[in-house]
Each structure stands twice: as C-alpha cells, then as structure tokens.
C-alpha cells in the first residue's frame, strides 16, 4: 500500500527544508521509490534538490480548459502530460503543482488530475506532498487518507499557535489523518522554558504528537546559500543525525 506523507505549515517555518531532509532520509534508508509533489505556490523544493522544472501541473490543468489534440480524451491528455512533467531521479520522482488556480472553473481539470494520481500512486511506496498552510491540493489529487501529517513551526509562540490551528482544520476538510506530528524548526539550544511550555500546550490541546525539535543549523544555512543539493549533506552533520533520529521515530511502524 502506498503511504501518504503531507507537510503543512505557514510560510517561513522550514517546511520545504523538512521535505528536502525527508527526501534525503528516505533515499538513505532505501524506502523507495517515492513521489514528491511540490504543492506550494512558491515552489522551490526543486532548488533544494538541484533539479530543473520545465512543466508544472498548473500549466497542464490550464491546457485542459482549452482545445485538445484530435483523437485524445481529456483523461488520456492529463495522463500523458503528467508523465511528461515528472522529473525522474534515482529512487524518486518530483511533480511541481505550480501556480494556484486562475479565473474560471478548474473542477473538471482537478477531476482528471485525481484520476491520474490514482493510477500513479500504485507505482510508489510513498507520496510526499509539500503543501501550503491550507491542504486543498490533497483533495484535488484525491489524497484524502494521510498516513503522516508533518506540521512545521518556527520557534515562536505565534508559530506554535498557527501549527495548532492547521491541525484543527483537518476535520472540516474531511481528510483521514492517521498520525499528526509537530516539528519545530530552527530551535535555539537550549530550548527556552517559555517555548517548551507553548509546545507542550499545543500538543496537549490538539491531535498532534511532538515529532521532534530541529535545532538551528549552520550546515543547513550554508547548503542553502551555496545552492547545493540537500542530498549532499554529510552523514556526520549534527543536524542530519538529529533529523534521522526524529524520522526513525516517526516512521518506525512503517
């Protein structure tokens, strides 16, 4: 069975960094093949992995609203174009959602996308979706059963509160969330008592478990500034050892 991992969090909380670190982890553990879907309108997961994007799902969905080549159905067109948009790497593929819906109705295009994702899913051990704070893309792709929801926060009271609110909106979206995990990124060391209290309060009052606390890291800052892939981070980097321990705990039952 394909398992779905979704990431959510407000902008600037290190959500895409977490997705890149998760990619590195799954490759190292040989939990492959998996599909990455960058569903953030400010798509930059490909940049953290040093990959170029030529075609996005947003472009394909716009094309579906127009005239198609003769002798091809919209289902066939969507499936063909999605395969063209796949960035194929060793152990994983990447799809980029692109810009949000423009004027007009995209309901039919989203229906064709959902049907294509159903066919794609069987090819992968995991599907990882990097979302914005809202998770509407999960419904558009017909990914309504989430095995692990990773909600990221920065080390601030407002960030922790926003993470809790994201956890709270999953019920109205009618998503089946099997496990919710709070990840606090770029945390100072040692962790201030006031911040620890906010984290404990959010975990207690929500459906989230504390997945882990990832400290601020010069290694991650250097990697982003240099433009090098996060897949090249050294195994002995302190932040990598911490992240691997966190992911070991989260995905132990998988």
UniProtKB/TrEMBL annotation:
The keyword Amino-acid biosynthesis does not apply. Keywords: ATP-binding, Nucleotide-binding. It comes from the Bacteria. Residues 5-228 form the CobQ/CobB/MinD/ParA nucleotide binding domain. One of its GO terms (cellular component) is cytosol. It comes from Candidatus Desulfatifera sulfidica. SUPFAM superfamilies: P-loop containing nucleoside triphosphate hydrolases (SSF52540). This is AAA family ATPase. One of its GO terms (molecular function) is ATP hydrolysis activity. One of its GO terms (biological process) is negative regulation of cell division. InterPro entries: CobQ/CobB/MinD/ParA_Nub-bd_dom (IPR002586), CooC (IPR014433), P-loop_NTPase (IPR027417), ParA/MinD_ATPase (IPR050625).
């Amino acid at each position: 069975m394909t398992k779905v991992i979704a990431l959510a969090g407000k902008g600037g909380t290190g959500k895409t960094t977490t997705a890149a670190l998760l990619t590195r982890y799954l490759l190292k553990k040989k939990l492959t093949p998996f599909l990455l879907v960058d569903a953030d309108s400010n798509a930059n997961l490909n940049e953290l992995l040093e990959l170029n994007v030529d075609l996005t799902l947003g472009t394909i969905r716009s094309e579906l609203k127009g005239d198609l080549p003769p002798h091809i159905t919209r289902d066939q067109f969507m499936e063909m174009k999605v395969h063209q948009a796949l960035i194929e790497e060793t152990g994983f593929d990447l799809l980029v959602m692109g810009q949000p819906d423009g004027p007009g109705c995209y309901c039919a295009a989203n229906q064709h996308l959902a049907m294509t994702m159903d066919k794609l899913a069987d090819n992968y051990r995991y599907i990882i979706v990097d979302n914005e704070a809202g998770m509407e893309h999960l419904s558009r792709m017909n990914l309504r059963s989430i095995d692990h929801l990773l909600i990221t926060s920065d080390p601030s009271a407002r960030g922790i509160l926003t993470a809790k609110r994201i956890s709270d909106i999953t019920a109205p979206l009618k998503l089946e969330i099997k496990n919710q995990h709070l990840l606090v990124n770029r945390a100072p060391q040692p962790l201030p008592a006031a911040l620890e209290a906010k984290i404990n309060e959010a975990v207690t009052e929500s459906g989230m478990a504390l997945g882990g606390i990832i400290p601020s890291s010069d290694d991650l800052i250097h990697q982003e500034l240099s433009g090098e892939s996060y897949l090249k981070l050294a195994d002995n980097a302190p932040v990598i050892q911490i992240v691997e321990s966190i992911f070991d705990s989260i995905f132990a039952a998988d």
